[in-house]
Amino acid sequence: MQYLIKRLQQYRAHKKWYRRYCYRSAVAIILRQGEQGVEALMIQRAQRLGDPWSGQMGFPGGRMEKRDGGGLATAQRETHEEIGLPSHAYSNCIGRLPDIIATPKKHLRPMVISCYVFEFQGEPELNLNHEVDEVIWLPLTFLANKNNRQTMRWQRNRKTVELPCYFYQGKRVWGLSLRMLDELVKVAS
């Protein structure tokens, strides 16, 4: 874990210059030392009508509000709201990953997602809200093993594409979350 912390502290994440003109959101990747090495906390979003990420694996986070004052505060607020983990329990932000652009579905402007990485020690007491069905700890060693990487078919409108994914404990990790995890594994190696 110390090696990863040092690498993240030295890493300079690319920030999109035009992000102030976009919709903004932020997520928290919370890491801990587990039985299988460094593990990342992931949430399975609740099944909800109208939620484009319904049922998918992701990280605690959400849309930035004016009162937040920045991406870091957004990630911490959303983490507290979604899984009940107060920011003082994991306040050590050890780094951030590059901004990711989410393709707009209903809006003309894209969404820029900022990803902050935190260290957590111990076993957190969590209180999941209505947006979250489950929490898992995903070992980074599982992601680093390319034999675990699979593909999936994803269909949007009439177009079907093959996308990379992982299945861990019956959960599929793909899309934006996978891009963030790939970057984290790259920084760690």
From TrEMBL:
Judging by the UniProt lineage, the source's domain of life is: Bacteria
- Tell me where in this chain the Nudix hydrolase domain is found: 22-163
Family annotation (SUPFAM superfamilies):
Nudix
- Keywords, in A-Z order: Hydrolase, Magnesium, Manganese, Metal-binding
* Known cofactor(s): Mn(2+); Mg(2+)
Keyword Magnesium annotated: yes
Report any Pfam family annotated for this entry: NUDIX
Any one Gene Ontology MF annotation carried by this entry is: coenzyme A diphosphatase activity
Full protein name: CoA pyrophosphatase
According to its UniProt entry, this protein's organism is Dasania phycosphaerae
